[in-house]
Design goal:
The structure is a homodimer of 321-residue chains.
Chain A (H helix, E strand, L loop, with lengths): L4 E7 L3 E8 L4 E8 L3 H4 L2 H15 L7 E8 L2 E3 L4 E3 L14 H9 L3 E5 H12 L8 E6 L3 E7 L2 E2 L31 H4 L1 H14 L5 H7 L6 H9 L3 H25 L3 E5 L7 H14 L2 H6 L1 E4 L6 H9 L3
Parallel strand pairs in A: 1-4, 4-7, 8-11, 11-12
Antiparallel strand pairs in A: 1-2, 2-3, 5-6, 8-9, 9-10
Chain lengths: 321, 321
C-alpha cells in the first residue's frame, strides 16, 4: 500500500493537538485532547498512543498508509534518542527522561520524529505558511516567552547543543532587564507577553501626561500585552510608545538575525503577534533601519499564517524525514 | 581512473593561490601567481586556466584524477551560473558579469564550483582548521573589512540573496559609527583593522592620561591595528581600553550569532586576529557575558588555524560537491 499520509502531534501544556495530513501538508482531519499532567505527566504518552490508534481506526485509515508521526513538544528534546525532559508545564521534570519515541513507536507501530515546539511551529510556517516553502525562513514566536524556529538550506538549525534558534535570548539591550536565563537584555524580556507589560509599567512610571495605560498601571489594574496593543491602536500615547519600543527591539533582532541568515522571510507568530499589521509594520520600520541593504530588499517581515495549526503541520513535516 | 584530487583556488587582489589536495583535504602541492588586474582584470581568468593546466602537466597529474576545482573570489558571486561581478580589487566592475565558471571549465576541462572568499575561508576552517569538521561552525574574518562564513548542518548559509553570513553588518552599537553600507554601528566599524584605528582615535581624544597610543595619535603618526594591539600587550592603558572595546563588540556579536546558530566554535581569523590569544581570551570573556547558558558551555571561541591556507582548502572543499 502506498504511504501517503502524515500524522502531526502538537503537545502542549493544556491540549494535545493532532492532525492527519497528506504528504503535501494538507490537513485532512484534526482533533485534540486535553493534556492530563497528573501523576508526573505519566498519562500523556499513553493518551497520545490511544488517541492516534483510535482515530486511525475511526477514519478506517490503514497504518500502512502512514509515512510517520511527527511531534512537537515543550522541554529539552534529544532528537536522536527521542527523549524529552524538563517540560515543566507537562510535569516532566529535568532529571527523568521520557522515552517518548520508543513508547509511541511501540504503541502505534509507526515511526516517530520529534523536535521542540518552537522549531516545529517554525517548520510549519516555513512549509505551508508565510514561509512559502522557501529554503531559508526565520520564525519568531512571541508568547509567554520568545522562541524561534530557524530554517537554513531547507533544514532546521539546531546547533551543537540544541540551542540554535534561541532567538529569545539574543541580547538587544546590554545591561537591560534581567532574564530568566541569568543574562540581561534578552529579546524575550521586551517582546514576550510579560515583556510588553514590563515595558508598560516602566514607561508609565516615567510618564506624566494623560494616558489610559498610565491610569491602569497607576491604579494597579491588570495590564496585559493585549490591553497595551488595544490602547495603542485606539491612540493612547504611552501605549504607542511601548509598542514602538517592542517593535524597535524586534526589528533590531530581526535585522541582526537576517545579517546572519538572510532568510526570505522573518515570520512573526505567537500570541503577541495577534496585534497583526499594527505591530508588523512597525517592526518592519525598525528592521529596515538596522538591516544590511541586500537584506533589507530581500528579507521580508511577515505575520504567521497558520495560527494554531503551525504545530501539527510542522510536526507532520518532521515525519517526512 | 579513480578521482582522488581536488584543486583549490583562492583569488585575491594581490595574489592567486592554488593548491592540489587529496579528497580528505591534505595539501599536496601549492603555488601562487600575482594577480594581474590590468585591462579590467581580463587577464585573471586566462591566467588561472594557464596556471592550472601548467601545474597539472608539471606534476604529471592526469585530469581524470581531479574531482573538481573550487574557487573563492571577492565580489558578488552567482553560484549557480558561476559568474562574478563587483570585485573592485580585481577591476571587475558591478555591471559586467565575468563568466568565471564557463571559462575555466572550458579552459581546463574540469568542473568548477565558486563562492565568495569569506564563505570559502570559513569552509576551510570548518573542514580542516579550528572547526574540526563539525557540522555547525561560524567563522569571522577581521581584515580590512569584517566578513563571515557560517556553516549550519554541514552547509554554508547563503540565504535568499547571498547576504547570509554578513557578520560584519550585525549592528552592535545602535546609532554608532557610520558604515560603508549606509547603516550605523555595524560590527565592521569597530573590529576591522580600520575600525580598531577609528576607536583608537576616538578614545585618544577623550583620554587625558599618559599613553604611548595617545601620543602617537596626538602627534599625527600612523596608527595601525597592529600598533594598537602591540601597545596593549606592552601595558599601555589606553590601547588596552581600545582592545577591550573591540573584544566587547566581538563577544557581543558572537553571543548573538551563537544564540541563532549554536555552533561548536566561533572561529576568529583574518589579519586583526594575529593578536592571537591576547584578543581571543577577551572576546571569550565578553561572549560569556552575553551568551545564553547552553550556548556558553557548548560554543567555543577559537582562533583560526589555517592562516593563508584557509582559502585554498575551503575552495577545495567546495569542489567536493
Amino acid at each position: 500500500m502506498a504511504k501517503d499520509k502524515l500524522i502531526g502531534v502538537d503537545l502542549g501544556g493544556t491540549t494535545i493537538k493532532f492532525a492527519i495530513l497528506t504528504a503535501e501538508g494538507e490537513i485532512q482531519q484534526k482533533w485534540s485532547v486535553q493534556t492530563n499532567i497528573l501523576q508526573d505527566g505519566s498519562h500523556i504518552v499513553p493518551d497520545i498512543i490511544d488517541s492516534i490508534n483510535h482515530h486511525l481506526n475511526l477514519y478506517q485509515l490503514d497504518k500502512d498508509r502512514i509515512i510517520g508521526i511527527g511531534m512537537g513538544t515543550p522541554g529539552t528534546v534529544d532528537r536522536e534518542n527521542g527523549t524529552v525532559e524538563g517540560a515543566f508545564n507537562l510535569n516532566w521534570d529535568a532529571d527523568h527522561k521520557q522515552n517518548v519515541k520508543a513508547d509511541i513507536e511501540a504503541g502505534t507501530g509507526l515511526t516517530l520524529s520529534i523536535d521542540n515546539d518552537a522549531n516545529v511551529a517554525g517548520l510549519g510556517e516555513q512549509w505551508r505558511g508565510a514561509g512559502n516553502n522557501a529554503d531559508d525562513v526565520a520564525f519568531i514566536t512571541l508568547g509567554t516567552g520568545v522562541g524561534g524556529g530557524l530554517i537554513a538550506n531547507g533544514k532546521l538549525i539546531h546547533g551543537v547543543a540544541g540551542a540554535g534558534g534561541e532567538v529569545g535570548h539574543i541580547c538587544v539591550e546590554p545591561g537591560g532587564y534581567l532574564c530568566t536565563c541569568g543574562n540581561r537584555g534578552c529579546l524575550e524580556q521586551y517582546t514576550s507577553a510579560t515583556g510588553v507589560v514590563h515595558l508598560a509599567h516602566d514607561f508609565a512610571e516615567e510618564y506624566a501626561g494623560d494616558s489610559k495605560l498610565k491610569s491602569l498601571v497607576d491604579n494597579g489594574e491588570e495590564v496585559t500585552s493585549k490591553i497595551v496593543f488595544d490602547l495603542a491602536a485606539s491612540g493612547d500615547f504611552l501605549a504607542n510608545e511601548v509598542v514602538n519600543k517592542v517593535a524597535y527591539y524586534l526589528g533590531f533582532a530581526s535585522a541582526n538575525l537576517s545579517a546572519i541568515l538572510n532568510p526570505s522571510a522573518v515570520v512573526i507568530g505567537g500570541g503577541v503577534s495577534a496585534a497583526g499589521e499594527f505591530l508588523r509594520s512597525r517592526v518592519e520600520q525598525s528592521f529596515e533601519n538596522f538591516a544590511f541593504p541586500t537584506v533589507r530588499t530581500s528579507t521580508k517581515i511577515k505575520l504567521a499564517e497558520l495560527g494554531n495549526d503551525a504545530g501539527v503541520v510542522g510536526a507532520a513535516s518532521l515525519a517526512r524525514g
